[in-house]
Amino acid sequence: MAMKRNGKAHVSSDSEGRVMLFKDVSLGPHAAQLRFRLIHFWEARNPIKKTLIGLEMLLIDEQGTVIQGFIPPGRIRKYLPDMKQGSVYQLDNFFGSKNKPVYRVADHIATVSFTWNSEMSVLHEVPISFDEDRFRFHSYEDFEANCDLKGYLYDVVGHMKLVNGQTLIGRPILDEVEIATSRHIMVHLQSHDGPVMKVYLWDQAAADFCKKFNSCANTPTVLLVTTVNTKRLGGTLALASMSSTRVFMDYDVQPTKDYFTWLGSNPEIAKQVSAEVVTKRETLTIADIFSYMTQESAKCTATIDDVVHGSAWYYIGCTVCHSKATKGATSLICTKTRCEKVNTTGVAQYRAKISVYDNSEQAFFVILGDAGRELTGRHASELANKNEGPDHEVPVPEALISTIGQTHKFCVKVTDHNFSGNTRAITVTKILSLDTPPPTEASVENTIAATSEETMQTGNEVCEPSKSRGGSTNEESKRTSASADPEKSKRQRCEK
């Protein structure tokens, strides 16, 4: 197909038959013919069971009307081999099903669903020009107004400020292997002169971003992300990618070209940024953490309700990297691949499970490493029973029990590991007293990396939302007790 300079493809054909335009598609069966360009297609899966629901598509007709398409899982094999993004197709016979009420990628009331008698074929020549794409941009104010509604998924374009915490002054280094493992990239994006927004790219969107970013000769500046879901994370607007998300940069499509030109004409905008927006760590409720998984660390203010008994509250870690050490033939060996230190003597490290609550939710937190020392004011090695190993049932020390009723700001780290299986584990990386200023991103980076590694190595940090306690009276008495003794609720021994 010959491509026009305006971004449309023009081809010719003597195709016959009645062609229905997208604007005329209604609900119900149709023995009609559609002609469209396939903008994009993606798998739709159940978010809990991960089972395949079907193949979803974004289609555009000759008048520039966009509609969503759907192929049931049992019919995907029939059509998928001939499907190619950007190609033009003809579809005979379909069903106009009602567009889903949540996470909508098109404004049309109907979805073109493939039925038992649907027939799709590639059109190499038709006397029509089809637009390449169609975007639906929202401003910061629009995203704010539609936050957490789970309705339409709109697009955003802007210039990047940070990529995974790295500035664009020196080109950020993105490790494709590391990102493939973490399945996550976080970008600070500013649209025109609006506030800086956090854009979370997951799975395929993260992989596509990394590939595009690394393939650019010059450091990319402009980013366009389609179909983002708006959420409020700790009181701050956050945009998250979905399965339907695509990413474009600098000169990929006309909107990024236009924005790049605008940015060049407004260099003072590119230099503007609020350091507070970029670097501050948001305080979340426990419910926030459960409802929005993020690789970024966050703060949560909660009251300690209990210390879990019946399991080891510490483990023996490597003296160098603090990862779990196991017994070898003649000595302890570090389990961390990059360390593999032999003949290590080992040192006790905190791995205590506590029950906490706030005004929104109850949960179990796992206190690891230095976070335990910040909570109790004592090193685990001072409290561990040297005559008993951590695998034995070791009594919980008084230093931990005495923390019950105290309220702290917990810096937590939530990753895929925390949400594996049927558990929702929250790992604590740092503990602050209520009057301690929040740390910067850089100040806890090493702690986050170390404790995340320890969590993966030990494999026993399993915690989940705690079950309801005996009754509301008992719960209320504990809350009243915590608030009635403010001195006990605020630890002065926590390190600043």
UniProtKB/TrEMBL annotation:
Question: Which Pfam family, giving just one, matches this sequence?
Answer: Rep_fac-A_C
| Matching InterPro entries | NA-bd_OB-fold, Rep_factor-A_C
Q: Where is the composition biased (Basic and acidic residues)?
A: 475-496
Question: Which Gene3D superfamilies does the protein's record reference?
Answer: Nucleic acid-binding proteins
- Per UniProt, the ranges with Polar residues bias are 449-460
Organism superkingdom:
Eukaryota
Q: Which SUPFAM superfamilies match?
A: Nucleic acid-binding proteins
Q: Where is the Replication factor A C-terminal domain?
A: 300-435
> Where are the stretches annotated Disordered?
449-496
Query: Which PANTHER family is this protein grouped with?
Result: OS03G0429900 PROTEIN
Name of the protein this chain belongs to: Replication factor A C-terminal domain-containing protein
